[in-house]
Amino acid sequence: MEPGQQVAIWLHDQAAKLFLGLPDRHPVSRWLVYGTVLPIQTPIGVWLDVKFVEERRAGGKQKDIHYGGKRIHYNVGPAPCLIRWDYVITAQNVKEIPKDTRPAPGLYL
Fold first, then answer.
1. pLDDT of residue 70
2. The domain containing residue 57 runs over which residues?
3. Which residues of the chain have pLDDT under 50?
4. Count of domains in the chain?
5. Given this model, what pLDDT does residue 36 score?
6. How many Å apart are CA 48 and CA 26, to the nearest integer?
7. Which of 28, 49, 78, 107 is most buried, judging by how many CB atoms fall within 10 Å of its CB?
8. Quick one: pLDDT at residue 48?
């Protein structure tokens, strides 16, 4: 990842809860961190200027997130955060904040 690059990073459920300080009893969800890569090098992760963290809870009749799922946005402060590599499921290069943040065809990092 290059400094200035905008990325969408999908996190493991337990890692996202730890990152946000949520209790273990919080519902299992899908998690996305959106932000810009900062010019700080570290072997254990990537530094991001985090714009938001999105939680996607399952909902509707089907247990699939795409059917009536609830989306919740969390703000993180201060915005510069280290996202550890062991928290990451996958990362995607994006040009702007996506209206639909589902994984899509594109450049995966």
1. 77
2. 6-93
3. 65, 67, 109
4. 1
5. 95
6. 25
7. 49
8. 96
CA 49 – CA 94 distance, rounded (Å): 14
What's the whole-model pTM score? 0.79
CA atoms within a 13 Å half-sphere pointing along the CA-CB vector of 85:
7
Tracing tokens 């989306």 back to the chain, one arrives at: 71
Nearest to 51 by CA among 89, 24, 81: 81
State which amino acid sits at residue 99: K
- For residue 105, being part of any structural domain is answered with no
The reply to whether omega before 78 is within 30° of 0 (cis) is yes
Q: What contacts 24+ positions apart, CB below 8 Å, involve 23-32? A: 27/57, 28/58, 29/55, 29/56, 29/57, 29/58, 30/55, 30/56, 30/65, 31/55, 31/56, 32/8, 32/56, 32/101
The amino acid that residue 103 corresponds to is P
